Amino acid sequence: MANQTSHILTPNDLLDIYEVPHLNTTECHELFTFDSEEFTVFKSFKNPKDSIYFALCLVFFKMKKTFVDFKYQEMMLGKTHLILRYFPGHKLSKKPPDQQRIFRIKNMVLDLCQYQRLTKDLQDDIVKSLSTVAPSHPRQRQLCKKLLNILNKRGIAIPGYSVLQNIVSRAWNQENKRVIQSYLRYTKASERQLVLSLLEKTDEKHAIISIKSDMKTFNTHDLWEEIEKQEKLQPIFNIAVDVLKQLKLPATTITYYGDLIFYYTGTRLTQLNPNMVGVYLLCYVYNRYQVLNDNLIEAFKKKIVMVQSKATDYAKNEAFKHLELIRTIRERVSQVLITVDTYPEPSVPKVEMYRSLPQHEFLTAAHLLVDESFDKELLFWKYIDEEKGSIKINLRPLFEAIQFVDSEDKDLNLAIGHLKALITGTVDTSLLSFIRGWIGKDAEKYLILKEELIPHRFEFFVYQKMLQQIKSNKLSLKHSIKHKKVEDELYEPKKWRREKRTILKNLDYPKLLIPIGKTLATKEKDLNNLYALVNLE
User: Is residue 416 classed exposed, middle or buried when 0-12, 13-18 and 19+ CB atoms within 10 A define those classes?
Assistant: First the structure.
């Protein structure tokens, strides 16, 4: 694991736990008001000095859950309050009780608060408990927070800081050892060498440097670089999938270890334990590969939308030109008719009619006057015809690189499979009837010509359908952070039924273990009590 600071608690945490409380007059009056059991013990001492020391210990322990190292001589406000309130007429003692008596007083405080000291046996047991949760807490400071929770739940007084450090260090080192041993057990020497190859220098830079850099634009060159990164990481990612499953590290820990790659320079990584660096790299690649997938699918979506938008605009512009042509033709035909009607001779020379409408436009005008309609959809696909080279260069590599999970739409899955076969030249002609039914009659006249698919049009048609499925979360990625299936975040049904109670117990949230019927009954009772209380007021 990473070298971490020796401070397992922040300065504020240290003050919260070990600093001697400074009480004002109001706080003294409130805190030194004891319940019957506490007051009985308080008055049981023969010497007021012992009673006062007990009171100080008790109040500080209830506040801190540890015995703070206070100096008896400096507790003037608290001692004065206790003398005046409970022992009027007695003089303040400057000296504290002897060490043996202090030890007895502290034991009495522990008994009253139902706490115990941290013994050697308890410490060993806590280290075991802490080791079980260590995979979820890779930082020593996180592990120390967990330790403090365990101590509180078990009713154990917080020991001195050095003891906390020792316990956390033992559990942390055990987890460190477990991770390295598991890494060595579940990888081959060749695989470890492949993982560490990311630290090799290329052009005076470590390979990992270029892989860490993010794609800046969606232009063709940047997309190709992103696909190249993905291809380079894929064999290492496959190793990571298998090994991290065996390491049983939660997602947060994998992310933490992976982020350490950003903390250390390439040179610094080569100086650390190579096996632990291997784990860091696997964690990094595991997340980075999925981020690359997400980047590629975002580029895929953006490219499809961009082509769609340009094709639609092209169709609109061509349609507008078509309308302008019709208007112009009508005006010219009108001039021809006027010429015919107003010409002084019975027959009109062609040359006179051609002045208003050139001869080469007569046939076009005749067709337009009979049928003024135009096909915007056809114009859309004509644009796709013009852009088929760009689609092949920009969209097809993304389609081939992204590992999609089967869509909920089974017909789309078949169409995607047919497109892959079309791209590789292994077309199954028997699927043509299925494809005709899938694309529908409206699209058939644009995608099928003489019983054959128009390949580039069908390709973009499939991309459009995929875009719709991606937007509706019906088409997801096999390995992704943003686009994975919800089911990928859940336990397998068999595992859940078998290990449900253990899983819930490890979440450290006891309410989840209580049957829902009992929880609802308790809530109902509490709510009825509140209703009754409000009604009384």
Answer: buried
pTM: 0.76
Measured distance CA(492)–CA(489) in Å, rounded: 9
Q: How many CA atoms lie within 13 A of 281 on its CB side?
A: 31
- Residue pair 260/146 in contact by the 8 Å Cβ criterion: no
Q: Measure the CA–CA gap between 59 and 310, rounded to whole angstroms.
A: 75
> Rounded to 5 degrees, what angle do the CA atoms 480, 482, 483 make?
65
Residue indicated by tokens 């450090």: 165
pLDDT > 90 fraction of the chain, expressed in percent and rounded: 50
Q: Which residues, listed in sequence order, are joined to residue 116 by a DSSP beta bridge?
A: 156
Neighbouring residues of 183: CB distance < 8 A, sequence distance ≥ 6 = 192, 243, 247, 275, 278, 279, 282
Q: Of 93, 164, 86, which is closest to residue 130 (Cα–Cα)?
A: 164
Instruction: Give the integer Cα–Cα distance in Å for 496 and 503.
Output: 8
Residue type at 184 in one-letter notation: L
Cβ–Cβ under 8 Å, residues 134 and 143: yes
* Phi, psi torsion values for 73, nearest 5 degrees: -65, -25
The C-alpha atoms of residue 22 and residue 172 are separated, in whole angstroms, by 35
59 and 45 Cβ atoms separated by less than 8 Å: no
d(CA 384, CA 455): 11
Helices 274-342/376-386 angle, 10° precision: 130
Average pLDDT over residues 258-264: 84
Identify whether the C-beta of residue 470 lies closer than 8 Å to the C-beta of residue 462.
no
377 in Cβ contact with 363 (< 8 Å): no
d(CA 302, CA 466): 13
| Element (DSSP H or E) covering residue 414 | helix 410-424
149-207 residue pLDDT tens = 999 999 999 999 999 999 999 999 999 999 999 999 999 999 999 999 888 766 555 56
H or E stretch covering 381: helix 376-386
Q: 487 vs 269, which has greater pLDDT?
A: 269
SS3 14: helix
Expressed in angstroms, the distance from the first to the final Cα of the chain is: 60
**Gap between the Cα atoms of 49 and 455, Å rounded:** 97
Domain-wise residue ranges, the chain: 11-113, 120-185, 190-294, 310-471, 493-536
Q: How far is Cα 84 from Cα 93, in angstroms, rounded to an integer? A: 13
Instruction: Say which DSSP state 156 is in.
Output: B
